[in-house]
Write a structure and sequence with these properties.
- The protein has helices at about 1-5, 10-75, 75-85, 90-95, 95-105, 145-155, 200-210, 260-265, 265-290, 290-310, 325-350, 360-380, 395-400, 400-425, 445-460, 490-505, 520-530, and strands at about 105-110, 115-125, 130-135, 160-165, 170-180, 190-195, 215-220, 225-230, 235-245, 250-260, 385-390, 425-430, 435-440, 475-480, 515.
- The protein is an alpha+beta fold and about 525 residues long.
- Its EC number is 2.7.7.65.
Length: about 525
């Protein structure tokens, strides 16, 4: 019996296929372990290091720029006279809050030849107020730690002429230079320090410069390595550790990267897969020749079945009732097909709706708007649209933080969705704090009434907004346009007109609604350039 079984086609097929598979697996393991993966990891590490170097180059540009600005001020006859007390009008001429904000300075500190404070000017990071002082007292007390650190730096290195990182929240770039005459003749009469915060604005500048997401944090103590790389799935989080002054802390300059280099390098692995595929094709060819009746015929039936259920699944198909492997495959395919239909429906939902608020997104809004505009132009019905903007939402985020901002967006979105449902119109989230609505068969007057319902509903939330110049709670501004006005005969023209009306509402003090008219265009354009 055993001898007869060993001669069977099934046994020989299984033995041959098992041998080929075993050989392929051994080959893949050897190639992967000793050749492919080491090469991929080495290449990936080199790519990550290069990307970090881009970010560090951006930081170096900030260092060099600030140091050059410090040198320009320090090697100047006016500054030289000022630190000796011979130029009383120096501060009035050269210092203002506007200058600090435009140059993105946090502090400028002048020290005399004995290393004592001569003059301080800066913007308090806690409240954004600008102060000038002759000592670190009263309103300038927040400068005390920085000033002492600068004085310690002067004692350690009187020559200065350098730019360093100071730990803090946020970390700081500090450039310093001795004070000389413009021609650098004579002895130094003191030192000048300029401080620039590495805050969100600075990070945004670095991201624009490098095209990479950039993160910054302060690390207590010292890391053993200059670079740390953590890999999670297809994402790499890499950090470079930079020395600060004083040197008991480090700044971690990091970025997050997709493993594109790693995935691209898998091309090497495809050659191995191609070799395996060719080998498997050879085996499959032999199987087809030797087991035509056992394998191919049921597979053809299964193929016909899969083609038949590409539309509606026939639950009564005889293939689903089979008790062999083909029946199992048919039922598994049926379940997988149903699951695929479900996933496709979920994917459509995700691609057309905003994940934070659950409202339709800009993509679905634009599609619907094109359809509604076409219908309105065909039938001659009126059509109005709204653009809604949460008033001073950036101030809200800056004050309460982005998690609270997300909560606010969800509450406002849900409220406006309920109003839109009740009044029979379509609303979507089309920007950060921006929403858009389309109102078929609605005149501008009717749209204004519905906008008041929207605004009133948001007001009734009484969601706190203590830093809003408009009200103590969250409010909205609304711009309205109608399809039949001049210049608003297309979806883009319609939304542009609503946008101009929105900016007119902002120019009028916010927390109001405006209907677009051609006379608003110039005013809205001017407001667009001045309002946040």
């Amino acid at each position: 019996m055993l001898q007869r079984f060993s001669r069977s086609l099934r046994f020989r097929f299984l033995a041959a296929l098992s041998g080929v598979l075993l050989l392929a697996l051994i080959s893949l393991v050897i190639l992967s372990k000793w050749v492919i993966f080491p090469a991929l990891h080495k290449e990936e590490h080199a790519v990550v290091t290069k990307e970090l170097e881009k970010i560090e180059a951006g930081l170096n540009v900030s260092h060099e720029t600030l140091l050059a600005q410090a040198r320009d001020w320090a090697i100047w006859d006016d500054t030289y006279e000022f630190v000796q007390g011979n130029y009383p009008g120096y501060t009035d001429t050269n210092f203002s809050q506007q200058m600090f904000e435009e140059m993105h300075y946090q502090l400028m500190a002048f020290f005399n030849a004995e290393g004592e404070v001569h003059f301080l000017a800066g913007i308090n990071p806690a409240n954004g107020q600008y102060h000038t002082c002759r000592s670190v007292e009263r309103e300038c007390r927040w400068m005390d730690g920085l000033v002492h650190t600068m004085q310690a730096s002067i004692k350690e290195d009187p020559l200065q002429r350098k730019s360093a990182l100071y730990a803090g929240s946020p970390p700081l770039i500090v450039a310093s230079n001795p004070i000389f005459r413009t021609d650098e003749s004579g002895p130094s009469q003191g030192w000048l320090f300029k401080v620039r915060p590495m805050d969100a604005d600075w990070l945004s500048t670095i991201e624009r410069y490098t095209g990479l997401p950039t993160m910054l944090s302060v690390v207590n103590g010292k890391e053993d390595n200059d670079i740390a790389i953590n890999i999670t799935g297809n994402t790499i989080f890499a950090q470079r550790f930079l020395t600060t002054y004083p040197s008991n802390e480090q700044i971690a300059l990091g970025t997050q990267l997709k493993r594109t280099s790693y995935l691209a390098s898998l091309e090497t692995f495809r050659y191995v897969l191609l070799w395996t595929a060719c080998l498997m094709l050879l085996v499959i060819g032999l199987v087809l020749l030797l087991l035509e009746r056992i394998i191919l015929k049921p597979l053809k039936i299964l193929t016909s079945f899969t083609q038949q259920i590409s539309g509606d699944i026939d639950e009564s198909s005889s293939l689903l009732k089979r008790g062999d492997e083909i029946g199992i495959l048919a039922r598994a395919f049926q379940n997988q097909f149903k699951r695929q239909q479900q996933l496709n429906a979920e994917l459509i939902q995700l691609s057309t709706h905003d994940p934070l608020t659950g409202l339709p997104n800009r993509r679905l809004f634009d599609q619907r708007l094109q359809e509604v505009v076409n219908n309105a132009q065909t039938t001659g019905q009126s059509l109005s649209v709204m653009m809604i903007d949460i008033d001073h939402f950036k101030l809200f985020n800056d004050h309460y933080g982005h998690p609270e901002g997300d909560i606010c967006l969800r509450r406002v979105a849900q409220t406006m969705h309920e109003v839109a449902t009740a009044h029979g119109f379509f609303i979507a989230r089309t920007g950060g704090e921006e929403f858009s609505a389309m109102l078929p068969a609605t005149s501008a007057t009717q749209a204004m009434e519905k906008s008041q319902a929207l605004s009133h509903a948001v007001d009734q939330l009484r969601h706190p907004h203590q830093v809003s110049p408009v009200a103590s709670y969250v409010t909205v501004s609304i711009g309205i346009s109608q399809l039949d006005i001049e210049g608003a005969m297309t979806p883009s023209g319609l939304m542009t007109a609503a946008d101009q009306a929105l900016y007119a509402a902002k120019a009028d003090g916010r927390h109001t609604a405006k209907v677009y008219t051609p006379s608003l265009a110039n005013t809205a354009f001017s407001s667009h350039n001045t309002l946040p």
